[in-house]
Amino acid sequence: MESGQFRIQNSISSDTVRYAPVMSAVLSGQNDHFMPSGASVRVRDIKNGYFRFVINCAEDIEALTEGIDDLLHRIIAIDTEYEEVWRELFPEAEYKHFRLNVITRQMLLPGPCRLLPEDTTIVPIDSSWDALVIDLCEDEEFTADLLRRQLRQNLSLGLIWRGERAGFISTHLNGELGPLWISPECRGRNLGTMLMCEYLHKYFEKNPIVFGLSAPENHASARIMENLGFQELGNTVLHITRGL
To answer: Is the pLDDT of residue 149 over 60?
Structure first.
C-alpha cells in the first residue's frame, strides 16, 4: 500500500480537492483494493466498505470495476459527468448527487474558530447522547445500532448551550464529515461553525484532509464550510447504492 500512497501523493495530489475522498482513505492506512488507471483511481475504505473512485475517462470505469462486482455495494464516484456510464453498468442502483467540500490543515481559516461563549461548551459524545442523536439523525444510512457504533468508534462531539444539549457532529459511514445538527434556538449564533471548527482541529490531529458531501439544497452547511475555508468542487459527486 505504500507504493499506492506514494503514487497518489506524487501523481494526483496536485488536485487535492478532486482526489480528496481517495486520498483520505489512503492516508488513513485503513484501505485496500487500491488501483490506478491512467489519471483515474479507486480505493476501498476498510472501515465501512465504501469504494471511492475518481474518474477522468469513461473507459477507466470498466477497468476499475472489473472483477470486484460482488464487493461494490456502496460507491462514491467523482464526477457526475460519467453518470450515464455508471447507470449502464449498475442500472438497478440508487443514485444521488452531492457537492464535494474539502479542507486541509493549511486551508482552515482562523477567524471563525474564536473562543466559545461562556454559556457554551463542546464535549466528546458518550452513550448518554445516543437517544438524542438517534432521534434527530435523518441520514438513512444509519440504523440505531449502527449509529451507536459509529458514535463510539469515530470522532463525535456534542454542543452544550446554557446547560442544554444543543448540537452534535460526527462522522458518516462513508468517512465524510457529518452529520451536523444545531438546535433551532442556537442557529444564527455562529455555534455550528464553532462546533465544526473544534471537530476539524481534533480530526487534523490524526488526518491531514477532511471531505464533506452536501446536498445541493443544503445551503446552511455550505455556508459553514465556506466560512471555515473549505473548497467546493460543486455538484460533482455520485453516491451509488446497490441492493446486493
So the answer is: yes
